Amino acid sequence: MKKQLVFIFFLISALGTFSQKATLSSGEEATGNGSVSYSVGQVFYTTNSSSNGSSLEGIQQSVELFVLSNSDFKDLVLKAVVYPNPIQNSINLILENTSLKQLKYHLYDIKGIAIKKGSINLKKTTIDISKYSTGIYLLKVIGKDKPLKTFKILKK
């Protein structure tokens, strides 16, 4: 009787145990104007929807990186010289081979709030950031009211 009770206890407790396993029979990635990757045989997923779009979350998680550029500015080569790295007092922005006029810069904090704006009149522009606290900043170069290039800046 005691053996039967122990057996029934283990049998019932084993029924409540779940395991997670993903068996994929194939997988591939396709690219075009966007990127799509898939896995055949994935049986578990969750759908998230909002007014901005929807996504399916499952076992396969992919990361996609994009380089954003503006085709109106093909002749523009931007080079940022940032020293010392990490920055302590100033950012030096050097523009090479540019014929564009009326370039501006906007400096944003990590929350996306514009904290400093100015115009770029020379090939080398020095931007003083000594009064700002330690953290990550985004420096956006703008021409013809369009963003040309964005740099991630670390201030020490």
Automatic annotation (TrEMBL):
Protein's recorded name: Secretion system C-terminal sorting domain-containing protein
Start and end residues of each Secretion system C-terminal sorting domain: 82-146
Annotated InterPro entries: Secre_tail (IPR026444)
UniProt keywords, alphabetically: Signal
Pfam families to which the protein is assigned, alphabetical: Por_Secre_tail
Signal peptide span: 1-22
Species of provenance: Polaribacter porphyrae
This protein's record includes keyword Signal: yes
